Amino acid sequence: LAAHPHDILAFRLQHFCAFWLGRPEVMLRTAEQVLPSWSAALPGFASVLACRSFAHEECGSYTIAEAAGRDAIALDPQDLWAAHAVAHVLEMQGRRSEGEQWIAGLEANWEGGNNLMHHLWWHQAMYRLERQDFAGVLALYDRRFRNLNSPLTLQQPDLYIDAQNAASMLFRLGLHGVDPGDRWAELADKAEARIGDCLSAFTLPHWMMALAATGRQAAAERMLAAMADFAAATPTANGALVGRIAQPICLAVWRRAAGDHAGAVAAMRPILGDMYRLGGSHAQQDVLEQLYLHSAMAAGLQADARLLLERVAGRHAVPPARRIGYAEAARCLLH
Q: What is the pTM (predicted TM-score) of this model?
């Protein structure tokens, strides 16, 4: 990219890899590096702006992020990554009604789009979750982002980001006592089929959520063993992420489901500050933070719960008391 700043494929691949290796600062540095070589006269400029928008959002520069994302949509209303970047800004700033309107106003442009459409509808469900519109969340789950009969899902029934969307939303709903019916079962079947596939480290805790929710202990044990084997045999950045970070989180998911809340906290505590290295956005990582918080509260580990609340409050513009996954703990512990 230093030699060929107009190589849009290289730029997008670098953006993608930096994101899933938990390196938002690299996303941002590269976006700013190539930007002076681009203008609206060049095809693909909207895509560059979209990546700039998301990079700034993940680094907490929300004003720049929103402006770049809206400029990208003005150039190309079909740009899903730009729509997604602005949706993240609105999520992080607690502008939930605006977020719902933003997505609803753009989805007419998405015909023929890829699975990022599903992730945008997941964002729509996230806004509704904050309003405790659980029926609305489940309707979006069944008809939009986990519609098992949609052409995209039929073509790629276990795509990593779709699995993340579905599992993280069902897990969040479970924290609030919402009965998911039999929705976990198809995810658990796919999780079993994926045991040994550790290419996407951030996806692994989501597969474990499905196994845990359906009580598949033997499959969970095989998955943990496969992750250990992969980490030992893979001397790469991804191998280290799986062994050092993803594996203890998966163990925590299982322990929590088995009622060992203190054990879940103990598994996650040493790597709490490194979870971002798995990749995933702030909005996606949030489910792992809630796993830790709710386990700590259930175990009576108030110091751990307070630590998590303080970490979240320091990064998110909306105080914990105004966020559904954190409000009860905040009322109890923050004064």
A: 0.97
